[in-house]
């Protein structure tokens, strides 16, 4: 569908009814997933780039990470603020993750730290997690909520005990440049990282080592999905979409899915459908197993043109 927005982050509600996205100008959009019709938006949230966004498990709240260093909470149906913004970091907040119950938010920033927050009160939990040299661009919480995993411009992947905040082992080395994307998956003991070096690395939590060789895309990886059955899906800066099975074998042909960087991807809760958002201002739906594009049940929705674009901090295209 033609979205006419530069999507930075995207999610699907737990009932698979809605696609929710935020953009480079600080706005919120909601669509009916199947019909691809606009339900709400553009709703201005902040006058800044929203780099990342997560939904709470009950889908009531949208939690955002902004270039002004704040983490915000918004009522999904109305777009109204539900609490004062959290002054989270001393630089742009570039990535967010949450625990399964949604009570804890984890943020990563250009200031080089990863931080934990109690969502309902905005209170910090423990001390900032320090270890990366420079900007932290990607963060995830493992499905069992035991670990926080982060990736930075220093090319390292780091693991932290979520409760205590202590590092787990040393930095994981493999990427030859900044780590830009992460997925902790929906199950299992692996997670995946994507880098500006055009590779995806799979990591085994039990051994602390790479699981197999690098998966090569040839273009910087900007978005990443690791499914419960072990499939790795990478969205790249050149608009291509790459898929590998659990054994690292390429699934199907590389797809020229978008005409520009694929900044955000999401799946439906059952992982049967993949949704991609490109900077060609188009959002596409795919049958994940076959890679076949899906069509709307009715007609496409058009939205007003983007009036402006604000980007601060790292912009690793």
Keywords:
single chain; 317 residues; mainly beta; 4-stranded antiparallel sheet
Percent range of helical residues: under 10%
Write down the overall mean pLDDT: 93
Q: Quick one: overall form?
A: globular
- What structural class do the secondary elements suggest? mainly beta
Radius of gyration: 18 Å
**Uncertain segments:** 299-308
Question: What's the tally of helices?
Answer: 0
Main pleated sheet: 5 strands, antiparallel
Number of strands: 28
- The H/E string reads EEEEEEEEEEEEEEEEEEEEEEEEEEEE
- Amount of beta strand: 35-45%
The termini sit apart by: 23 Å
Overview of this protein structure:
The chain has 317 residues and is mainly β. The protein contains no helices and 28 strands. The protein has strands spanning 7-12, 18-23, 27-32, 37-44, 50-55, 61-66, 70-75, 86-87, 93-98, 104-109, 113-118, 129-130, 136-141, 147-152, 157-161, 179-183, 190-195, 199-204, 209-210, 215-216, 221-226, 232-236, 240-244, 255-256, 262-267, 273-278, 283-287, 292-293. The strands form seven sheets. Strands 16, 17, 18, 19 and 20 form a five-stranded antiparallel sheet that branches. A four-stranded antiparallel sheet has the order 1-2-3-4, with no helix packed on it. The radius of gyration is 18 Å and the shape is globular. The model is unreliable at 299-308 (pLDDT under 50).
């Amino acid at each position: 569908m033609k979205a006419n927005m530069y999507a930075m982050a995207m999610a699907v509600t737990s009932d698979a009814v809605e696609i929710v996205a935020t953009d480079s100008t600080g706005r919120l959009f909601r669509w009916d997933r199947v019909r691809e019709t606009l339900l709400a938006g553009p709703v201005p949230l902040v006058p800044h780039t929203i780099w990342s966004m997560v939904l709470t498990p009950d889908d009531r709240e949208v939690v955002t990470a902004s270039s002004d260093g704040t983490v915000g909470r918004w009522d999904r149906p109305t777009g109204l603020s539900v609490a004062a913004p959290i002054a989270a970091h001393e630089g742009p907040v570039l990535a967010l993750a949450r625990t399964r119950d949604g009570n804890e938010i984890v943020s990563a920033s250009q200031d080089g730290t990863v931080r934990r927050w109690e969502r309902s009160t905005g209170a910090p939990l423990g001390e900032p997690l320090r270890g990366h040299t420079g900007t932290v661009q990607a963060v995830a919480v493992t499905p069992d909520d035991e670990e926080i995993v982060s990736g930075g411009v220093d090319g390292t992947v780091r693991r932290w005990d979520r409760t205590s905040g202590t590092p787990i082992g040393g930095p994981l080395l493999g990427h030859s440049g900044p780590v830009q994307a992460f997925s902790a998956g929906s199950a299992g003991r692996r997670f995946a990282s994507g880098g500006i070096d055009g590779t995806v690395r799979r990591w085994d939590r039990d051994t602390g080592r790479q699981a197999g060789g690098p998966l090569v895309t040839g273009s910087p990886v900007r978005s990443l999905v690791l499914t419960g059955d072990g499939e790795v899906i990478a969205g790249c800066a050149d608009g291509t979409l790459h898929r590998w099975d659990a054994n690292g074998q390429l699934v199907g042909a590389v797809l020229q899915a978008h005409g520009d960087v694929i900044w955000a991807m999401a799946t439906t809760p059952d992982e049967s459908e993949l949704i991609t958002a490109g900077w060609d201002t188009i959002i596409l739906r795919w049958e994940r197993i076959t890679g076949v594009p899906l069509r709307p049940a009715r007609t496409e929705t058009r939205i007003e043109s983007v009036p402006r674009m604000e980007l601060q901090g790292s912009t690793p295209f």
